[in-house]
Amino acid sequence: MKRPVQFIQGQWVAGEGSSFVSLDPAKNKQVWQGESASAAQVDTAVQAAREAHYSWADLSLEQRLEVVKKFGEQLVAEKEALALCIAEETGKPLWESRTEVGAMTGKIDISVRAYQERTGSKENPMPQGKAFLRHKPHGVVAVFGPYNFPGHLPNGHIVPALLAGNSVLFKPSELTPKVAELTVQLWQKAGLPAGVLNLLQGEVDTGKALAGHDGIDGLFFTGSSRTGHFLHQQFAGRPEKILALEMGGNNPLIVQDVSDVDAAVHDIIQSAFISAGQRCTCARKLFLPANEQGDKILARLLDVASNIKVGLYDDEEQPFMGSMISVAAAKGMLDVQAQLQKLGGRSLLEMKHLDEATALVSPGIIDCSDIADFPDDEHFGPLLKVFRFTDFDAAIAAANNTSFGLSAGLLSDSADLYQHFFRRIRAGIVNWNRPITGASSAAPFGGIGKSGNHRASAYYAADYCAYPVASVELDKVQLPEQLSPGLQF
Ligand SMILES: NC(=O)c1ccc[n+]([C@@H]2O[C@H](COP(=O)([O-])OP(=O)(O)OC[C@H]3O[C@@H](n4cnc5c(N)ncnc54)[C@H](O)[C@@H]3O)[C@@H](O)[C@H]2O)c1
Ligand SMILES: O=CCC[C@H](NC(=O)CCC(=O)O)C(=O)O
């Protein structure tokens, strides 16, 4: 008997497409199995969302917020279960999975504030009548999530979309269906009306059927640049649909003139190796001065990085790094390391596959200063590329030599240097003496270049969840006090 894994029109039903499974990448065991939503089921879900839209949008913000707050209560009540589910499906240590659930809960108040501050209503008197600015939901929107934050990042689209009055079709990553199932169960328990949120589990075919469906008014995507670009092409010639793309990065971190070597090394490690290097904001390129201070920082970095505890998400003594998402992803990162070595990279700390049957890998650091034609790809794992420099402006130019532009950082005791860096660097998140990961949900979050399409998420998600409507209104028709020239009444 097939498991009911799709949530359509308030009912759990079995998928009618091909079967797929989700694995615990740290223990190599199956944690979920189900069938994908077929194109016909995608169609039924879109119709259900369309039917549910008006009655949801017609509720007041307070009424919608009541349901969203109940979802927040469910998150608090099920915090441990959800954290364990995230840990099992991604390999993320429990301490970190708990912070992901915390971010989901925190998103509710932030989204209410953002809705009011960025898309609220305004009223201005006019000589005759009043001018109003109001916002309306787009209608039916699709949300596509990535595997690396299977709870927090889809939630970052879903909560503001629902608050604004949209109904939602949620297509999670096929690598993390169990987290999505649990999250949607919590929405159901919170009392969300049938059809307002539909879950469409599946692989690429389900994603394609949903993205290409005529009945959606918009799509909010978080994932790889490759998929984002594919969607952008699919949406070409459809200006009536809103597309928000949150994509990858190839993020630089520059160090110059720091007195506290350990503090610098700490921020480098947090930037490069948190979540086993599987954050869009992770530092991929580290620019270190080719001098004695650079040597000192590098030596200390190698020392601390080689002692990073890598382990199982539920180890009693928690590791800093858990496993990667899959054995294939782990092998892919080892291939990248081998390819960089071939191009002239010198491994300073070799990344190792710790157990071929699981996705546990150790962190790697490779000096790529001698690679002339460095590939501009996002390497989504714990491999930090080091470049030594002699000139600060040349380091900034090298840091900007990417088609991405998500996050960037400077570690330096010099405020002047930071001012200069800030003016020149091209990225949507620019930090000084802080890790470049761990962005706040209370700020806008988005990148330039191949990292996004200028529709920042997090605090600015409200902007793409509703459109502005300007009105001038008078309660009855009146002749204007002053007629246009040439008119007689
Ligand atoms: N900028 C951000 O906010 C942000 C946040 C997290 C992750 N990311 C990026 O996400 C990537 C990792 O996530 P991922 O591997 O799950 O991304 P992905 O692009 O492989 O998948 C994202 C979603 O798109 C769907 N999808 C894939 N191909 C599709 C297609 N052809 N048509 C329709 N849907 C399709 C997937 O099923 C999944 O739901 C990294 O590149 C990372 O940098 C970006
Ligand atoms: O993997 C990409 C997200 C990384 C994470 N960013 C956020 O959580 C942004 C805030 C939000 O979306 O609410 C990070 O910077 O570590």
From TrEMBL:
<comment type="function">
    <text>Catalyzes the NAD-dependent reduction of succinylglutamate semialdehyde into succinylglutamate.</text>
</comment>
<dbReference type="GO" id="GO:0043824">
    <property type="term" value="F:succinylglutamate-semialdehyde dehydrogenase activity"/>
</dbReference>
<keyword id="KW-0560">Oxidoreductase</keyword>
<feature type="active site">
    <location>
        <position position="280"/>
    </location>
</feature>
<keyword id="KW-0520">NAD</keyword>
<dbReference type="Pfam" id="PF00171">
    <property type="entry name" value="Aldedh"/>
</dbReference>
<dbReference type="InterPro" id="IPR016163">
    <property type="entry name" value="Ald_DH_C"/>
</dbReference>
<dbReference type="InterPro" id="IPR016161">
    <property type="entry name" value="Ald_DH/histidinol_DH"/>
</dbReference>
<feature type="domain" description="Aldehyde dehydrogenase">
    <location>
        <begin position="12"/>
        <end position="463"/>
    </location>
</feature>
<keyword id="KW-0056">Arginine metabolism</keyword>
<feature type="active site">
    <location>
        <position position="246"/>
    </location>
</feature>
<protein>
    <recommendedName>
        <fullName>N-succinylglutamate 5-semialdehyde dehydrogenase</fullName>
        <ecNumber>1.2.1.71</ecNumber>
    </recommendedName>
</protein>
<dbReference type="InterPro" id="IPR016160">
    <property type="entry name" value="Ald_DH_CS_CYS"/>
</dbReference>
<comment type="similarity">
    <text>Belongs to the aldehyde dehydrogenase family. AstD subfamily.</text>
</comment>
<feature type="binding site">
    <location>
        <begin position="223"/>
        <end position="228"/>
    </location>
    <ligand>
        <name>NAD(+)</name>
    </ligand>
</feature>
<dbReference type="InterPro" id="IPR029510">
    <property type="entry name" value="Ald_DH_CS_GLU"/>
</dbReference>
<comment type="pathway">
    <text>Amino-acid degradation; L-arginine degradation via AST pathway; L-glutamate and succinate from L-arginine: step 4/5.</text>
</comment>
<dbReference type="InterPro" id="IPR017649">
    <property type="entry name" value="SuccinylGlu_semiald_DH_AstD"/>
</dbReference>
<dbReference type="InterPro" id="IPR015590">
    <property type="entry name" value="Aldehyde_DH_dom"/>
</dbReference>
<dbReference type="InterPro" id="IPR016162">
    <property type="entry name" value="Ald_DH_N"/>
</dbReference>
